[in-house]
Every structure is written in C-alpha cells, then in structure tokens.
Amino acid sequence: DMDMETDQIYQIDVGNLLAFNPNHRFSSAPSSREELVKECVTEGTKLVQAIADTLFNLPSTETNDGPLVQLPPPTTKLPREKHLPRPKPPTKWEEFALKKGIQKRKKDKIVYDETTDKFKRRHGYDRVNDDNDIPIIEAKASDEPGEDPFAKRLDDKKKRVGKQEKNRLENLKTAAKAGALPSHVQLAVTGLPISGTKTQPKKIGKEALGDVAGLAATSTASGGKFDKKLPGEKPPKKQGKHHKYLPVVPRYGWVDEEKEQTNKVLGKLLSKHSHEILNVGKAINMYNDKKEKKKSGRSDKLKAKKDITKKKPYANKAN
Amino acid sequence: MMEIRTPKTHKAKRVLEKRAPKLVENGKKTLILHGTKTSATLSSVLMELYRLKKGGAIKYSRRNENIRPFESGGETSLEFFSQKTDCSIFAYGSHTKKRPDNLVLGRMYDHHVYDLIEVGIDNFKSLLSFSYDKKIAPHEGSKPFICFTGEGFENVPELKQLKEVLTDLFRGEVVDNLNLTGLDRAYICSAISPTKVFLTHCAIKLKKSGTIVPRIELVEVGPSMDLVIRRNRLPNEGLRKEAMKSSKDKPKKKVKNVDQDDVLGKRGRIFIPEQEVGKTPLPDKSKGVKRERREGKLKKKNKEEGSASKKHKESE
C-alpha cells in the first residue's frame, strides 16, 4: 500500500502538524528556479497529505463550526521557555503543624453567637466576637491603676498584626531564596538603610589589609622600616625596582664579583661580535630622539613664557 | 528594608500569573526587531514575519544599536526586552557590508539566551507579489502544517538546529482539540544544499476525494526566501538538559503492596506501625500545664511503663 510505505519513510508528528522527509535528495545543479520551487512544493504536498491522512482518520466530534478532533500530544521535544515551577518550602507554621500533627480544619462562614443567640458571620460586618463591641472590661488584680484597658487591647492587636506581617515577610524571603516566590508577589527593597544605624562593615581581605598597612608605613619618616610590627605581620613588600648591588670591596679570598660583572659587560661591547649584541641603528635613533626632545622643549602652554626683553634684577650688580 | 508588593488590580494579577513559570506553558511569543541598518528586503521580511505571526508576536520599530547577539555583552538589551514583553523567541535583522540581509533567530530560556542561528536571506519574494484566489487566503492565527524535506536536516548539525528553531517559531500554541475546517496554511522548508534552505508559505486547498481524507493542494501565497546558514551557537549541554526537562519525565513508580487477583480482585496490604500511646502528642489545653510540666509527666509515664512491662515479662 503506497500510503503505508510513505508513512514509514516520513517522520510525522501529528500533535505539532509536523512532517519530515529525510530521504529526498535535491540535485546540486537545479535546472531553473521555477523547477526547484515546483519540486519543493510537490514534496511538501506529499508530506501534508501524509499528515492529513492520519488527521482525518482520528475520531471527530461534530460541532457548529466543523468537525473537531482530539490531537495526540506532540512527540518532538522542544525546549521550555521557563524553568519548571519549583516547590514552595514550608512556612514556619506549616513546619510546626507537621511536627505537632495539627490538621487543618475548615471553618464555617456562619457561627453561632451565644451572647445574642443568633447566627452571625465569622468575618466582616456584624461579626461574631468583634473587639469593638465589648462594653465593659473587668479589672484584674494584676492591672495597673492608670492604664486604659481598651487602648491596651488595641495596642496588643497592633503588635500581633505587626508580628504576623514580619513572619509573612520572613516566609516570603525563604521562598524567594528557594526560587519559589508566588507569581503575584514581588519583594522590593524600599530604601537605603537610615543613616546612623549600624551598617555591616565591609569585610576586607588579608592581602588588602597588608597593602594598606604598607602604604601607611611609607608615609613615616623612615619609610616604615623601623615600625613596630604586630605578631604575625609580614615585612612590607618592597615597592619599585629590585636592585642587587654587589659589594665593591670583595671579601678576603673571594672573587671580586662587581669587577667581574663590569668586565663582562665591557668585554661584550668591545668584542668583535659586539655588532650582534648592540643594535647600533637603534642606539643612534634613541640618541637622536632624546636630543630632539630636549631641543623642542616642553610645549607647556601653561608654563609662563620667559620675556627676554625683561632684564634680571641684579644683572647690573654682577657686572 | 524589604517590602511585599502585590498587584492592586485583578487584571495585573492575571497578567503576572500568565507570565509565571508553569507546568504546561503558553505558546512562545516572538520579538521582531532590527539593528542600526536594514535593507529594503530585510524590512519587508521582518514585516511579513510579523504578519504571519500576528497575535503571537511583537514588532519593535526603532533601531537598536547595542544589540550584538553573538558577542558576550551584546545580549543584555535582548534579555531585557524578552523580560518586558515575555517573548522567548526573537528575530533580529541587520544589514552590513560583511553580512547583507542578515537575520538572527534566537530562543530564550528564563529570559537568557539559549541558542542562536544566523541566516542570510536570498531570493526574497514578498507576499504581495503572489497572485492567488483571495478565497483561499489563510486566516490569521490558524495552526499551520510544517514540512521539512531533505536529508540535510538530519545530517548537518546547523540545519538540524534550524529545523528545531523553525518548528518553535511557526508552531504557535499547543492545542488539544483542532477544528479541521480551520487548516489553511503550510510552511514548506526544503534543504536544497547543506547550507541553504528554501522556505515558502502556502495556502491549503482541500479537494474532494473518494475517502474521508480530502486531497491536498498547496498554492504558494508567499513570502518565500532562501535561508543561507551563516553562524550559529548551540546551547551548552547543562542548559539544554534543564530546558528539555518536562514533568512527565519521571518513570512511573512501582506501586507496592497492591496485587491483582482474579478471584478476589485488587488486594492491598496495610502495615500499621507500632502505636506508642504514651508518645502521641495530645493537645493539653489546660492553662496550668506548661511545657516543662508536660515533658516531666511524659518522662514519668515512660519510666512507669518501662518498669511495668519489665514486671509483666518477668511474671510471664
């Protein structure tokens, strides 16, 4: 059967309405552009026909707009656009409830109020156990005489609400740390810390401290050489070029290193192979450049130009 | 000082929830923009690509000087736009002497560049240059057929990547139910050489045939162009693995302690752990019992039980 054969050769993904024919070979030297285009469209038609064959044979339901088919899930794997949703870490209360074995209980919207023998709603207008409705608060032995118990109740409530908000913020922070912040919540840093409050001092590394100490030491009169060092403090690193000066007067019985060093250099310069060591051309250029620079002088526009017409104040006296 | 910010309107909340990472994702949106210079062909390519993907694409008309997708610092603007518009595919067009009619197709993962492929456009034919019967013109937003022909798509890695990117670009939303009368367009991509792909857009004509399956006829409606592969960047392996992860990847866990029997049907076995009545946390709501007292009580009980069981065992 021709249809069965082509299905086996083509790779069809019905879920994506995608078809791929890996076996067709296009000629490397097409006859003309139109011929090539025609060939592509013909091949394309075959592929679309192959998908349609599978598609129209799926079970369909009739609706007002036309036949509706249930597409199978796509088989080609394509990368996601966002990461998979991460599981939310349990909140402090959830951890506590898990430990204690506390189950969530569904609360009713309407509760029976004993004081008025009626059914009232739990939250909202005319609610059960409204804080504002209490007319009389009985004094206890522990109460102070000047304290207003109504104000105290309001204060306590404010504190409880504040604590809850703080806990909520902490829970959201842990969720944000785990990358599982709920989609509609954003944690924003509102402002810089208030001046005068203790900010965390920036932690400086060991090396940086050493460098700074070295810098400070150089500002002393003796360049930090005789400064008292703390136990464990390393001697300062020598800044600048490192010279090794050989002793001028050699030790008894030892070779005169300094003399040898200079003789070596002199020997190289005066030998018959000196042209190989000394690049005479470069040396001449360097000398000439230096001379020219000195001649031209510094083009300092800021430097006050000497007025040659002005005589020196004590010139006559010298004469 | 941190502050919790939540949306004040329902509409804002719905938008945020739509953009949040989900198990089953929405269709990818395309961002179309161009660089400092564009040619006539390139600007019409971008315009027509936008028309083809109307409803799932956003086109920026200003030129962007600091976008260089293949350079390390030149992607920041793209990532910012991707974040703002919630687009995870982009088509960036530019025209330079070295790379004329250049189009960079790229994808994003978590609003960071995932992979890139750069193609040059040759032999572009605008959709206005095609003449056809207007009755068969495809409707906006209809789900297309996508066809690939040529061994190049399997053998050449750049063409393989291009195939994947084009599928992602043209696919649109993944749907469960499809209305068969609404199938009216097809994208035909043919690998005419190891570096060239011929892309064309056709309308579908359904002709009567003897069976339920109609006979398909394709009519070119445009645009059509040749895509010449220039540069590409594949995603690094770790990122690719993470992006390809799906929730259904985990193999089904073997259900333990359940066996099917022909006579008795489905049987399950339940194991009850040893109930240590003394250790179950009971809520003691009486005010006088504080934690130290509670713990002290428990300790006492355990001691008594221990000695009681010992006595019991000794007596046996």
Automatic annotation (TrEMBL), chain A:
Location(s) in or outside the cell: Nucleus
Residue ranges, compositional bias (Basic residues): 308-319
Main location as per UniProt: nucleus
UniProt region (Disordered), positions on chain: 58-90, 220-244, 286-319
Cited InterPro entries: Ribosom_reg (IPR007023)
Family matches, as Pfam families: RRS1
Comp. bias (Basic and acidic residues): 225-236, 297-307
Annotated keywords: Nucleus, Ribosome biogenesis
Task of the protein: Involved in ribosomal large subunit assembly.
Family (UniProt): Belongs to the RRS1 family.
Protein name: Ribosome biogenesis regulatory protein
Organism: Brassica napus
TrEMBL record, chain B:
GO cellular component, one term: nucleolus
Family statement drawn from the similarity comment of this UniProt entry: Belongs to the RPF2 family.
Protein name per UniProt: Ribosome production factor 2 homolog
Domain of life: Eukaryota
Region (Disordered) residue spans: 238-316
UniProt KW keywords: Nucleus
UniProt xrefs under InterPro entries: Brix (IPR007109), Rpf2 (IPR039770)
Compartments, as annotated in UniProt: Nucleus, Nucleolus
Pfam families: Brix (PF04427)
The keyword Transit peptide appears for this protein: no
GO MF term (any one): rRNA binding
Composition skew (Basic and acidic residues), residue ranges: 238-249, 256-265, 282-295, 302-316
Source species: Brassica napus
SMART domains given in the database record: Brix (SM00879)
Gene Ontology biological-process entries: maturation of LSU-rRNA from tricistronic rRNA transcript (SSU-rRNA, 5.8S rRNA, LSU-rRNA); ribosomal large subunit assembly
PROSITE patterns: BRIX
Brix domain location: 28-238
